[in-house]
Amino acid sequence: MTGLIVQDKTVVVPGEVIAEGIDYLPSYGSYREQDKIMASQLGLLNIDGKVLKIIPLAGRYLPRRNDVIIAKVVDILMTGWRLEINSPYTAVLNLKDASFDYIARGADLSKYFNLEDYMVTKIVNVTSQNIIDVSCKGPGLRGLRGGRVIRVSSCKVPRIIGKKGSMVSMIKRATGCQITVGQNGFVWINGEPDKEILVVEVINKVQREAHIQGLTERIQKFLEEKTGNKIEIIEEKDEYESSEQSEYSQEN
Amino acid sequence: MNYTKRFDGRKFDELRPIEAKAGVIKKADGSAYFRIGKTTAYAAVYGPRELYPKFMQDPKQGLLRCNYNMMPFSGAGERVRPGPSRRSKEISMITERALRPVLDLKDFPNAVVDVFIELTETDAGSRCAGICAASIALADAGIIMKDMVVAYSVGKVGDQVVVDLDGDEEHFDHNSSVDIPLAFIPSTGEITLLQMDGRISPADLRKCLAMAKEQAPAVLQVLQKALKDKYTME
After folding, report:
1. Which terminus of chain B is less hemmed in, N or C, by CB atoms within 10 Å?
2. Contact: A88, B148; criterion CB under 8 Å
3. pTM
4. Among residues 60-99 of chain B, which lie with CB inside 8 Å of chain A?
């Protein structure tokens, strides 16, 4: 028997045979064992022509270059800050990448970023041993004041952002909150206290139902019920687009 | 001594009823519940995460660290002394070695995947139940693994070769029965755990292994279903 054994967009588990024969190619999350292609990760099967890829449903964040992430300061070093990024590894923000301002040698670094502060940063370099350098210089990169930060699974980030940012922009318009989604799964929310709670509720719903079809419509309905206003889904090109696509095109 | 009929009425090549569920511990990165007969195991996976003490770190790949623990009330009546023991250390180690061959932790140098296995009720076959639970929990945590690992015991009770001994069978005829816990990689048929209690002839051992291999697909199906059910509820 040759050909596909599992349908597109179904949940596959490690060791499950996805296809037999030589008509298909294994990609991220799958491997070939003689004439069989098997899954090596829990996820949704995505068939792109001949290529079989698995979009993971769980797993820790692995840092990649150019990802925009939200980080928390956990330590202040001699020449920079150590940051927690929801990954097995910590990142380092170096003095020269921290600010456009001149920071004198020996200055009190806690004046710029103190312990427990959150910031939006961009990963500039990742080594093979997962030593991570980040930068705070660039459009949209800054320290975060006020609001709240919640943690979600980094696998659900593309769902929270939606196609071309449609999901997050819909939540923003419905609640009037400022929202920044980091690729690492930290989400910063700033707005009216009761609206912030609503955003947290919506994001948790997105997380729970991320793998079920028709998500955007369900969230639209949910938001309309909660706020009592009509909400439209608009696809917009914004800062998220590039980072969202990198999520899908990884390792290709 | 003759053993003609099993105490619980099972066929000689029949497993006890199996039940499994994924994602039972919300705070963990991955978790599972696995029950076979009267043996219940819970497994929770945390990580990959930073590994300390630092000398344990491996710059080439991540480390798997398992911890097997029986609850004080889990035994056949007498209290199990809490805390690590010679037995639980051994089982933690063999669990690690049973699971390690399927895992791919190359992406996580210097990090560790922690697996905690807790047994709330035990009636023989607890290390195998622990391995099955850990196998589901690791997959649930999104860790890259080439296959799941299935585990159960085979052995010889009296003069009869049987699959999946329960507590009564293990103690049959003054503990003279043979108990062989096994773990398999189902796709390749490789054995990742094989221990033995008692004495057995080479011919009977081969018979046991042949009998055991036939059960692998049934157990695997339960493990796979547990993971899929987590995402098909609604």
Report:
1. C
2. no
3. 0.92
4. none
